[in-house]
Design goal:
By secondary structure, this protein is α+β, with helices and mostly antiparallel strands. It has helices at residues 5-28, 35-60, 91-95, 167-177, 190-198, 212-224, 238-241, 252-259; strands spanning 65-68, 81-89, 102-109, 112-120, 125-130, 134-137, 140-141, 154-157, 183-185, 204-207, 228-230, 244-247. The protein has a seven-stranded mixed sheet, sandwiched between helices. Strands 9-8-10-12-11 form a five-stranded mixed sheet, sandwiched between helices. The longest helix has 26 residues, at 35-60. It starts with a helix and ends with a helix.
Length: 263
């Protein structure tokens, strides 16, 4: 795949921020004696990662807008283009020394995601896609799985924590889905869940209460790998409600029907 200038910029920024996070990740285990100290350390690592990414992207494309998890949004001089960035998706995993977290960078053009990068530094897996050009992990082209029945499929999700309001809906989802499938996984990083759907590791993913930076890059990965994405409720878009369903083409409708069944 011939990478565009913008995608090269995104990949370089993700790799540089990834090196910083890997260095910080090695220090996390030394901070576990104090949860507050560890939390503060991870917050600094998160902010440092965003600073690296923001400086590289905005220096290369100073007219683009910006939407990031750790800083105020910026309305660019070019109102049609915007970076959407999560500098550390899976912060709780990072805090606990679990090597499952990622950097997510997306480029939006006229309201549509046209390029996306999800980088897993701990495993050195770089997922990337551009609209109409396919999806790749490192140098290998990706395709979603071809499993055609729910009972042989496994799904990923994010279980609400800290008494979030969507817990009843999630419990209903699980009660409906688990008897009909091969299993459900909860690994704590939505960007990687979507990347794994693109890679065929998961057959589908759904989650509520998400932010644009959680899913912007990942949804393009799935689409460019031949999968389908959509909102949980048809009356609103994915970003408007912060809800998403993603799956391979064969099971998307069956999967969506289960998740869209109202409690």
């Amino acid at each position: 795949m011939q990478l565009s200038a913008n995608l090269n910029i995104m990949i370089n920024a993700a790799r540089k921020a990834g090196r910083s996070l890997v260095k910080d990740f090695r220090e996390v285990e030394n901070l576990q004696v104090s949860s507050k100290a560890a939390g503060d350390f991870v917050s600094r690592a998160d902010i440092a990662s965003e600073k690296i990414i923001r400086e590289m992207l905005m220096e290369a494309r100073p007219n683009y807008g910006w939407l990031g998890e750790e800083s105020a949004p910026v309305e660019g001089k070019d109102p049609t283009r915007r970076w959407i960035v999560d500098p550390l998706d899976g912060t709780t995993n990072f805090l606990h020394g679990l090597p499952h977290w990622a950097i997510s960078i997306a480029l939006e053009f006229k309201g549509e995601i046209v390029a996306g990068v999800v980088f897993d530094p701990a495993k050195d897996e770089l997922y990337y896609a551009e609209k109409g050009m396919g999806c790749f992990m490192n140098d290998r082209r990706l395709r979603v799985s071809n499993r055609g029945t729910m009972i042989e499929s496994i799904f990923a999700t994010g279980v609400p924590f800290a008494a979030k309001k969507t817990l009843p809906a999630m419990l209903h989802d699980l009660a409906q889905l688990m008897p009909a499938c091969a299993g459900v996984r909860r690994w704590g990083a939505a960007s990687l869940d979507l990347a794994y759907v693109a890679a065929g590791r998961y057959d589908g993913f759904w989650e509520r209460e998400l932010q644009p930076w959680d899913i912007a890059a990942g949804l393009l990965l799935v689409r460019e790998a031949g999968g389908f994405t959509g909102p949980i409720r048809d009356e609103a878009g994915i970003f408007e409600r912060g809800e998403i369903i993603a799956a391979n083409a064969e099971i998307f409708e069956s999967f969506a029907k289960v998740i869209r069944t109202r409690p």
